[in-house]
C-alpha cells in the first residue's frame, strides 16, 4: 500500500496460497517472510527469490491477530497456467452475468491437440441450457486444428433422440460426435496468430456468426525448418494461404465485423468492453 506494507489483494485459485492448510486471505497484512520484514528496500520478491517448492514461513496479521502460514511457492510456469485458467473463468462468469445466463463462453488457447480436447469437453459441459456460445481465439498462437473446430461449429441439427429416462430431446450430431449446434460469435485480436487467423477466415466464410474484436496480425504462412552445418537453423516459407477472393493471409490480418478495442481503463474497473460487444452482438442474433 502507500505506506510500503504488503497486503494480500487476492488469492489465486489453485495456488499454494489457496491450500486449506496454508490459506491466505484477502486483506491479510504480511508481517514477515522467513523472519524478515518486507520493505521497499527489501521487497517480497527478493525474500521469495529461489524458494520455489521450499517451505516459506509467512507471518500475517488478520483481524488484529498474528498467525503464521507455511507455503511452498509455485513456479512461474505453474502460476502462469493458473492465471490463464483464472482469466478464462473470469470471462465465463462475466459473459454469464452480462447475458443473464443465456450465453456460454469458450476460449481456445492454442490450435493443438490438448486445446482441442478441452474444447470438445467444454462443448458438452459448458453449453448445456445455453442459447448461444462465444468462441474466443484471442491470444491463440496457432497450430493446426482450425478446420476441426470449425467442423464442430458448422454441423446442422437434423435429428432428435430421446430416452425413456430423459424425454428431453437431444441432437443426433451431439450423440454421435462433437457438435455445438447453437448460434455463435467469435472473438479475435492482434495476438491471434496463424491457424487462429485461418479459424477467423473460416468462421466468416462459413457464416457462423459475427466476429468481434481487433484485426489479427497477418502472420499466416506455412514454413519448414532446416538445420545448418554450423549448428544453426533457419525456417523457410513452404506454402501460401489465400482466402477465396485470392487475398494472401500473410501480412493481411483478418478483420472483425464489430471493432471492439481493448479498453484498459475500463478493464481495471471491472468492465470488459470486448466481451460486452461480443455478448451484445450475439444476443442481437438470437
Based on CA atoms alone, the radius of gyration comes out at: 24 Å
Helix content class: 25-40%
Beta-strand content: 15-25%
Number of helices: 8
Runs with pLDDT <50, length 5+?
A: none
Number of strands: 13
Task: Find the structural class using helix and strand composition.
Answer: alpha/beta
Main β-sheet, spatial strand arrangement: 5-6-9-10-13
Shape: globular
Major sheet details? 5 strands, parallel
Distance between the termini: 46 Å
Question: How would you sum up this structure, described in words?
Answer:
The protein is α/β, with parallel strands linked by helices and about 290 residues long. Helices cover about 30% and strands about 20% of the residues. It is built from eight helices and 13 strands. It has helices spanning about 45, 75-100, 115-125, 145-155, 170-175, 195-205, 265, 275-285; strands at about 5, 30-35, 55-60, 65-70, 105, 130-135, 160, 170, 185-190, 210-215, 220-225, 235-240, 260. The strands form four sheets. The chain has a five-stranded parallel beta sheet with strand order 5-6-9-10-13, with helices on both faces. A four-stranded antiparallel beta sheet has the order 1-2-3-4, with no helix packed on it. Strand 9 (about 185-190), helix 6 and strand 10 form a beta-alpha-beta unit. The longest helix is centred in the N-terminal third of the chain and has 23 residues, at about 75-100. The radius of gyration is 24 Å and the shape is globular. The two termini are about 45 Å apart. The model has no long low-confidence stretch (mean pLDDT about 95).
